[in-house]
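Lay summary. Proteins are chains of building blocks that fold into shapes, and those shapes determine what they do. In this project we predict the shape from the chain. Here is one chain we studied, written as its sequence of building blocks.
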Amino acid sequence: MGVYLIATGIIFALLIFFLIKFILAPRKADALTKLMETGQFKKAASEAQALIKKNERNHLAHYILALCYYNTKQFNPALYELRLLTRLNKFDDSVKEEDVRNKLAEIYLSLGQLEEAQKEFLLIIRLNPANYEIMFKIAKIFFERNFLEQAYSYFMKVIGVNPKHAEANFYVGQILYQGKKGNEALNYLNNALKLDPQLHKANYFLGVINKTNSSYHQAIICLDDAQKDPEFRQRARLMKGQCLFEMGDFPNALIDLERAAKDITEEDSIALAVRYSLAAVYERMRDLPAAITQWEIIAKVKPGYGDVLEKLATYQELRTDDKLKDFMTASNTGFEDMCRITIKAMGFDIVKFTADGGNHAIILASEPESKWRNTKVSNKLIHIFRDTDTISEQIVRNIQEDMKKVNANKAICISTNKFSQGARDFAAARPIDLVDKAGLADILKKA
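And here is the predicted shape, written in a compact code that computers can read:
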């Protein structure tokens, strides 16, 4: 009789265990799930914790608690619960390993722990090799960590599984561009836009590639569209401004570069490039004070940037020499007038005056007849350059050839910049005088 009672008790206990585990427990889990669905995360977490107190190895309760923490952005306790689940290694239809590891990875991403997130995604791929979205996440992390070869490999795997994945095509195109394979990149970037016309950032790289190929009009079309992407807007305006600069359209280049400058929030590499390009436009448009302002900002952030210090040295006299400043900043017509004044200050009469744009004047001059009453008047060929480019030896050689054409016995080359050593050596043995900016300043003082 005693044995019978013991056996009956064991059977009853098993029935109770079965009832709790397979009937009441799922109902309890369903109730907690409904609480979460209605946003009652605090209550759901409290009840999940109560279940864990009864059974510390209740994996479903731990998972529900992790989800409650995750949805309320309490990432550290959520991380603890999810890690615990991986140690318990008890996965089933209610708690899937792929879901747990995916949540772990997302938390690592939010905490900036890219390598840890990537490890979890790689484990998911082992569980589900066909999951191309996870492949894409792995590839993107490789890209952000600057492991471009590995990133390229995984992006290509994504395209292999799903050729219509627009962003994977975009990233492959970007990586190829960065690897100086612009023509190969074009195919993937164009394909990305065909798959998703709203992927405006692809047009940024298409614009840059077209700019590199000197296809400026096509580049501008792409860069205008790229400005619809907030991340690439400033860079697109910079590139468009540079295209317009190369085309000689300085007024419109100024518009885009000034817009890009207004977007500057920190003096990073893009900001410095914007300021440098903007200064180049100001310089070409003779707004030198504005150009100097940009160069000074760049010099404070990164003194060795490009030729900024050289530019500032070139124009430092503008702050103290008003006549030189007027000469440098005058309009095209004003430049011609000041060239005439310069020739007179040098003691010559103008025989013929030719303006070659707003930065170069060619003058055939002679000394006053009163000085040479009994002598044949000799001509002087004078070139005046208002430019920031160094005068090369070839330019001086060309001047010598021009002397022969106009029967000039002497030439004078005046520049607001400097002369190359080759130019100086060539002129030293010939009747050609070189006058630099300091010499021009002395002449203007006599005017």
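What the prediction tells us: The longest helix spans residues 2-37.
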